[in-house]
Amino acid sequence: MQDYTGIETPFYLYDMGLLERTLSAANESAAAHGYHLHYAIKANHEREILSRINAHGIGADCVSGGELSTALYAGFSPGTTVFAGVGKSDEEIVYALENNIYCLNCESVEELEVIAGLARQMGKVARVALRVNPGVDAHTHHHITTGLEENKFGIQPAQLQKALDICAASESIRFMGLHFHIGSQITGPGPFLALCDRVNQLWREFRIQEYGGRMLNLGGGLGINYADPDGDPVPDFESFFAIFAQNLRLPGAVSVHFELGRSLVGQCGTLITKVLYVKEGVNKTFVITDAGMTELLRPALYQAVHKIENLASKSPARCYDVVGPACESTDVFASQVSLPATTRGDLLAIRSAGAYGQSMSLRYNQRRQAQAYFNREEITSPENVSAELFLPDFV
After folding, report:
1. What is d(CA 197, CA 390) in angstroms, rounded to the nearest whole number?
2. Residue 157 domain-assigned (yes or no)
């Protein structure tokens, strides 16, 4: 077992070698088809993570002014940065226009009118893609499905013609193309095949090329293997991009973009936590850890399942409920999970926590913010620790 003596738990541990392999695999597979990649900052905005991703020439995908500021401050080029989100404030739109980012992904007719008005006041031309809600079921958890008609995201096809007409009539809007994102943690080809069919249909039906559309952004959604992170550490990017290369029917002049988050960083992160108590209940035994929903919100928010390993014990297995210290009944990492016999002071590794772990961390119950460490070989080196998330202000 790696020696974590003297390191205060809980903490996030990042395998930077795995991150490098993942980024290289994604870039190589995308480049084979001439595709462009943007990293979804929301997945993890730790400074060292962003630095490595930027070094691979991947652009940024942002959903807030704070994320946009973080991306630009971290060195991402405005020319490869996109900005989505259903609730962009006027200040955020102005900030994006001031920085001349590549594209604003617009999610409603109402927002489009605001962007046009603000750009006109600034004497700017806003580059805009229209995010269309394609009505495609991602067959994933309902809280991370974003392409159905009842979702808050995107423009309904019935409103797309109106949005295109606004773009055509406005001198302060440059229409770039269409944007889609149907959901997250998609592990089979079906939803992506359905998306290709819908994109082909909409592109023809609404004559996107005639309106000047030369860009298609297909979002992200590619999942990772939470059950077997060691056996399947790098997603199959080659097969993922091949789905689109084989099924999109678009003019050759159209550039195709993707916004990947979880698939790039999910497997490289692990949450290390210490067992505080092993509590015998009436019908269950609880392992109470010093990490909780404040460090990894996904199980409480999405009922997500992460592999949990006991780093200290090789004793015969028992069934436990692994829970955190937060004053919430939903602060549960796993129910009836099999672990080696566990005792106070054991260290547990909660795997596949690189995406939506540290970036969603909370100060609820006034909890101390967990630190982040990089490179398992050098974990005790002071220069390899980050004490806080990277959060510059955007104004």
Report:
1. 39
2. yes
Kindly state whether residues 191 and 296 are assigned to the same domain. Answer: no
Q: Is residue 2 part of a domain?
A: no
Phi, psi (rounded to 5 degrees) for 41 = -55, -30
The predicted-structure confidence for 351-393, as pLDDT tens digits, reads as follows 999 999 999 999 999 999 999 999 754 444 444 555 445 556 7
Overall number of domains in the chain: 2
Residue 104 and residue 70 share a domain:
yes
Rounded CA separation 73/100 (Å): 14
Block residue for tokens 């409603």: 108
Which residues have C-beta within 8 Å of that of residue 13, sequence separation ≥ 6? 269, 270, 271, 272, 349, 372, 373, 376, 379
Residues 179, 256 share a domain: yes
* DSSP per-residue string spanning 138-171: --S-GGGB--STTSSSSB-HHHHHHHHHHHHH-T
Assess contact for 96 and 102: CB atoms under 8 A. Answer: no
CA atoms within 13 A on the CB side of 30: 24
Non-local CB neighbours of 343 within 8 Å, separated by 6+ positions: 275, 278, 313
- What does the pLDDT average to over 168-179? 98
